[in-house]
Amino acid sequence: MPETDAERRARLPAAVYDLAMRLGVKPDERRDTVRLTQTGRMKRSLDSPSWMHFTATQTISTQACAFNWQAKFGPLGMVTVQDALERGKACLDIKAFGLIPITRAVPTPALVRGELMRYLAELPWAPTAILLNATLRWRQDTPDTLVVSAGTGETASDVILSLDSSGRIAGAFAPDRPRSASVPHLPTPWRGRFSGYTLHASHWIPFAGEVAWEINGKPQLYWQGKLESWDIG
Hints:
Layout (H helix, E strand, L loop, with lengths): L4 H7 L2 H9 L10 E10 L9 E10 L5 E7 L5 E8 L2 E8 L3 E5 L4 H13 L7 H4 L4 E6 L2 E6 L6 E7 L5 E10 L8 E14 L2 E13 L2 E15 L1
Antiparallel strand pairs: 1-2, 1-13, 2-3, 3-4, 4-5, 5-6, 7-8, 8-9, 9-10, 10-11, 11-12, 12-13
């Protein structure tokens, strides 16, 4: 049976339920998949001075920790990337022309943990998941920060969400996201920032974002993107 609104109110801290309401989520909402398109740029490596431009499509589940990001880079989209978490399994595949393997990350708990952190950090793009994804664990840290967690054992993941003056999610921070799926895992501070909130399809959605690793205490930006479309169904 679907969870009732009264059951959600009992399960969630009041600050989390209130956040969902501020973002436009309806108490009786049942839609389970967000679909979005993006354009942006990304660095091949942290020490690279150049950026690669991309176009991407992404689906995000509102009822489970799952997403699928598929991007095209370079002239004519000759390099394709799939970054995904589905049914508890993580995937990071890079191919040329969609056929020739370039890189395939070996599935490890560290890879799953990193993808779980990505899902948690991207909740601003799937605000309905705040209510519908009952696998998420929440606590209020301060009046302006919430901690959301998922996974267990080796994949246990925490992300700190910071709120802006309007009570919307402005940032996401993980102190120890794995920078490598293989040993050494290189747990590293990692953060995302959201901006450009727009009332779209009855939800407040940030249409711009950027992501950085913190190396020796200094943020190193490596991903910037903006939404071109957003829909939920």
